[in-house]
């Protein structure tokens, strides 16, 4: 009887053993290396695709869902999977917006049916990825790019305003300064015709004194001659003074060639200077009539000549008086 119970227990255990073995092999797995991306370069603001490969190493067909995380934030929608026991792996994916900071992706198998008997291989995590802040992908980071949304690897900026040429709608290049040439107005020199100057010369004649009997006495002759000389000298001086005044007041304002006469004072020879424009213009020689020193020298010579003439007259008068005394 005892042997019959043992035989029955062995027979029943052999019937349930396959079911017990199958239950312990319900297993879905996702490995760390099974998470991949659609690109190997991550530009901030780009949308990339994340792939996860799930396999079923167990002995039973299984269903489950894959959830993707970026930190604690769920990426995309939950992706269902159905895998045949020990069959080909299945790949699911979601789209992901690359953030401006570094990131990694964590994938988890959830809701397995039948229940996964090996949860140790139900999660996978990627390495930490560094993003690139280069919106236009021209190799120049946004913080240094003068046109962050337009491709311009050369960073050309001809007007140097900090905005690249490909996105600069305003040309701030300094325009060359155009300086207008001054207009020169020719100066027309006025032409003035000088009126002729006529200086009147007074001539004074002294009457001759005659003595009784038709003869000229020495005393009266001497007196007459002396008076005539004095009158002649006075008349000459008066005439010269009149000529100087007339020449000075009527001197032309321009020279013979039409150029304005220099503004200078003339001396006693203004009448001669008025007639000779070249003498007025030529200031390089000492011996010209406009030089006051020359004028003074000429005056001294003239006075000397008058003194000599007066001395001759006085001597002759004295000689005449002596002769008269001898005759008396």
Structure description:
The protein is rod-shaped and about 230 Å long. The chain starts with a helix and ends with a helix. It has five helices and seven strands. The strands form two sheets. The chain has a four-stranded antiparallel sheet with strand order 4-3-6-7, with no helix packed on it. Helix 2 (218-249) packs antiparallel against helix 5. It has helices at 2-24, 218-249, 270-275, 277-281, 292-327; strands spanning 35-37, 47-54, 62-70, 73-83, 90-97, 106-113, 123-125. A hairpin with a 2-residue loop joins strand 3 (62-70) and strand 4 (73-83). Among the domains are: 23-125, Sandwich (Immunoglobulin-like); 216-327, no CATH class. Mean pLDDT is 76; it is low at 199-249. It has 328 residues and is an alpha+beta fold. Helix content is 31%, strand content 15%.
Query: Gyration radius, to the nearest Å?
Result: 69 Å
Estimate the global geometry from the Cα principal axes.
Answer: rod-shaped
Helix-strand sequence: HEEEEEEEHHHH
Q: Determine the N-to-C terminus distance.
A: 232 Å
**Helix proportion:** 25-40%
β-strand number: 7
**Percent of residues in beta strands:** 15-25%
Low-confidence stretches: 199-249
**Which structural category fits the helices and strands?**
alpha+beta
Helix-strand blueprint:
Blueprint: H1 2-24, E1 35-37, E2 47-54, E3 62-70, E4 73-83, E5 90-97, E6 106-113, E7 123-125, H2 218-249, H3 270-275, H4 277-281, H5 292-327
Antiparallel strand pairs: 1-2, 2-5, 3-4, 3-6, 6-7
């Amino acid at each position: 009887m005892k042997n019959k119970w043992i035989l029955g227990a062995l027979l029943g255990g052999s019937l349930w053993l396959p079911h017990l073995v199958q239950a312990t092999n319900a297993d879905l797995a996702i490995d760390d290396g099974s998470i991949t991306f659609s690109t190997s370069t991550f530009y901030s603001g780009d949308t990339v695709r994340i792939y996860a490969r799930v396999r079923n190493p167990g002995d039973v067909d299984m269903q489950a869902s894959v959830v993707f995380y970026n930190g604690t934030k769920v990426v995309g929608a939950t992706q269902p999977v159905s895998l045949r026991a020990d069959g080909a792996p299945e790949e699911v994916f979601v789209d992901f917006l690359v953030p401006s900071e570094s990131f990694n992706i964590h994938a988890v198998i959830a809701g397995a049916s039948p229940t996964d008997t090996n949860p140790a291989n139900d999660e996978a995590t990627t390495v930490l990825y560094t993003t690139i802040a280069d919106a236009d992908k021209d190799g120049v980071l946004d913080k240094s790019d003068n046109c962050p949304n337009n491709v311009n690897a050369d960073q050309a900026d001809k007007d140097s305003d900090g905005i690249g040429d490909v996105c600069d709608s305003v040309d701030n290049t300094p325009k060359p300064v155009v300086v207008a040439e001054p207009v020169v107005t020719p100066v027309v020199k006025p032409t003035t015709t000088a009126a002729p100057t006529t200086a009147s010369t007074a001539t004074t004649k002294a009457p001759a004194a005659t003595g009784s009997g038709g003869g000229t006495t020495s005393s009266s002759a001497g007196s007459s001659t002396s008076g005539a000389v004095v009158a002649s000298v006075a008349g000459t001086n008066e005439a010269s003074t009149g000529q100087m005044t007339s020449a000075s007041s009527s001197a032309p304002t321009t020279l013979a060639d039409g150029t304005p006469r220099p503004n200078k004072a003339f001396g006693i020879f203004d009448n001669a200077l008025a007639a000779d424009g070249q003498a007025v213009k030529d200031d390089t020689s000492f011996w010209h009539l406009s030089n006051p020193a020359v004028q003074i020298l000429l005056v001294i010579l003239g006075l000397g000549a008058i003194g000599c003439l007066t001395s001759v007259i006085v001597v002759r008068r004295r000689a005449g008086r002596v002769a008269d005394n001898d005759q008396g």
